[in-house]
Amino acid sequence: VTVGQCASYPSFPPGFKFGVATAAYQVEGAWNVSDKGVSIWDKITHDKSHLILDGSSGDVACDSYHLWKRDLEMLTELGVHFYRISLSWPRLLPTGHPNHISEDGKRYYNELIDALLEKGIEPAVTIYHWDMPQHLQDLGGWTNPLIADWLLAYARVVFTLFADRVKIWITINEPVMICDLGYGLGKHAPMLMTPNDIGSYMCNKNLLIAHAKVYRLYDEKFRPKYHGMISIVNHLAWLEAFTDDDSYMTYLAMQNTAGRYSHPIYSKEGGWPPEVERIVAINSERQGYPRSRLPAFTRQEIELVRGTFDFFGLNHYTSRAIRTLDPSEKRGALSFFGDGEYNYTITERPGWTVAGNGWLIPYPEGFRYLLKWIKQEYGDVKILVTENGYSTEAVNYIHDDDRLKYHKDYINQMLLAIKEDGVNVIGYTAWSLMDNFEWTDGYKAKFGLYEVNFTDPRRTRTPRKSAKFYAELIKHQRFIEIDSGTSSALYAL
Ligand code: PNW
């Protein structure tokens, strides 16, 4: 039995939901139709295309703005219960502000949402998945505390337009990528590099306040009428100690990468993870700053943010090992999170292999450990896995046994976490429905269950073997042996 222990626990809990995800900038294209405004990703890809691996942009992407009916067919073929999309802020509000709501933007999302519901597919909608209106970026974006009110005003429009039909809401996708990569390390739009994580931390705090205000708006004004659920989505890598001696640094690394965005929301006491707060304060003082680079929360702000969740939205792809640094040593190449002042390095273990895009190391057991960690750290919260997936690079790559194995092994570990560890996972989302614009990797990293031909003006989509596997899994709501060779007919193309 190649799927290991899941053979004894083949079926998913009743009501468990499966979905797939995309994001507006990565699939829609139509970057300048009608009155759509310019986003920070439009701007970066146009002005600084050398920062994108293949010099590409999301100008056309999968052209889902025009081809969403084809996407709908694919979703029906897969039999998913929900489809996670994001809304483009500048498509709906071209200036970033609600002084002008785009009729075209409204029409596009209304048609898509209605069509999904007609097919019995639930829309799960992310309000902010990285495409900040450039107008607001010019005023500081996530480093301007007013961003909380700008996001709130946008969210009010969104809820007013769509909350009658959308019942699963996500405020913001992956703050750690927005803040640490966007405002500290300069690897995502707006590509700011700030010394000593100053920008990352400003963004971190403002973003949590913004999320909390949007959560509370929904909770107070829309939930009573529409009864949906809403949370934030965090990206968590599983980090484990390289040797037993590294367990404190591993704890710290987990608090720095995961805790800085989760502790203020999910912990009983709220606020920054204490150990992170303590160390950044000490370092800041040593470096001659008048106050901690990690901006303090007031008592009121702590209370505003604490408890603003209906579930834990989890994006998970990969794991790393944490090793304590010798004072003379440099950080490893794989430390992609802002960790400027900590005495650890992020590394890989012997035997781990890195997938196509350079950062994704598959380690299925890490998924189970992480799910358990979330439960230990934040209590018995409902967890919705909002992304999980694997990237390849080849074109015309239909028999994607490696991606199929990745999803199979990760879902297997998730099932073990549910059945053996009692973790309350309520759904799983594969990233992604189809190949798309993978940020700074352009079209080189392909995460799709469906392949997209980006040289074809019609952007033809073709199901991969992994799509057939996922469809079978959803159909039977139980794990099926697939490696036995003879019984693989179901998955043959
Ligand atoms: C997520 N990492 O980003 C995003 O939510 C998606 O938009 C994206 O396409 C997908 O995962 C695949 O990358 C990530 O460095 C970016 O570990 C970077 C990392 C993980 C996720």
From TrEMBL:
Keyword hit for Transmembrane: yes
Gene3D superfamilies assigned to the protein according to its UniProt record, in alphabetical order: Glycosidases (3.20.20.80)
Pfam families per UniProt: Glyco_hydro_1
Entry keyword set: Glycosidase, Hydrolase, Membrane, Signal, Transmembrane, Transmembrane helix
InterPro entries documented for this protein: GH (IPR017853), GH_1_N_CS (IPR033132), Glyco_hydro_1 (IPR001360)
Lineage top rank: taxon: Eukaryota
SUPFAM superfamilies named in the record: (Trans)glycosidases
Family label: Belongs to the glycosyl hydrolase 1 family.
Descriptive protein name: Myrosinase 1-like
Record organism: Galleria mellonella
Lineage of producing organism: Eukaryota, Metazoa, Ecdysozoa, Arthropoda, Hexapoda
Encoding gene (name): LOC113513279
